[in-house]
Amino acid sequence: METWTVETDDDGGHLEVHSFRPAAEASIPGASGATEEPGVVLVHGTLVTDSLYWPFARNLSVLLGRPVH
Question: Do residues 17 and 41 make contact, with C-beta atoms less than 8 angstroms apart?
């Protein structure tokens, strides 16, 4: 597990992000081809309003190199 902190651009808040690597391909029954990097980020919804979520989502997208929805 990897843990890092993502902050808003104005330093108004931060989230701790925990990333888990997928299991090795050999241990996944029926798996074929290369395993992609994790693509799911969960944010505890009762603590984050829409106006707070978007700055974090933008920065997470940059860190992950993928869209964050």
Answer: yes
Q: Could you tell me the CA-to-CA distances from 43 to 14, 28, 60, 62 in Å, in that order? A: 12, 27, 11, 17
Is 12 inside any structural domain?
A: no
Closest listed residue to residue 19, CA positions, set 35, 5, 34:
5
Tens digit of each residue's pLDDT (9 = 90 or more) over 1-24: 677 777 777 777 777 777 666 655
Please state the domain count of the chain: 1
Could you tell me which of 21, 19, 5 has the C-alpha nearest to residue 56?
5
